[in-house]
Design a protein that fits this description.
Length: 117
């Protein structure tokens, strides 16, 4: 029996510069043989289409177990994030230095609340 998660050993991140820098310093950075990075730095100049493209690419990769995304970045592509239903990579919305976490906006938490009500 093959498991769909056995080769998933990377974290991926879409977030602001401070979040990405901290996580890269913690050792999550990876560039694969096709020169694809497992992170996207989002700033005020980053187009929504670029964020959506990175989200799509990272959620389709078979080597990523968890995709971390700053919640304020997830808000920019909220319909796409809310439609994402796959177990792998797991999607986790995280706070950033300038934007605190709001459980009311978290797509995973909203889904859990629907299931429990």
């Amino acid at each position: 029996m093959t498991t769909s998660f056995k080769n998933r050993n990377l974290l991926a991140v879409i977030g602001d510069e401070d979040s990405i820098t901290g996580l890269l310093l913690a050792g999550i950075g990876h560039i694969n043989e096709n020169q694809k990075k497992n992170f996207l730095v989002v700033d005020s100049k980053t187009q929504v289409s670029a964020i959506e493209a990175a989200f799509q690419e990272l959620t389709e990769r078979k080597d990523i177990a968890i995709l971390l995304i700053n919640q304020h970045v997830a808000e920019k592509i909220r319909p796409t994030v809310d439609r994402y239903q796959q177990p792998f990579p797991a999607l986790l919305e995280i706070p950033s230095k300038d934007h605190p976490y709001d459980p009311e906006k978290d797509s995973v938490l909203k889904r859990v609340q629907k299931l429990s009500s």
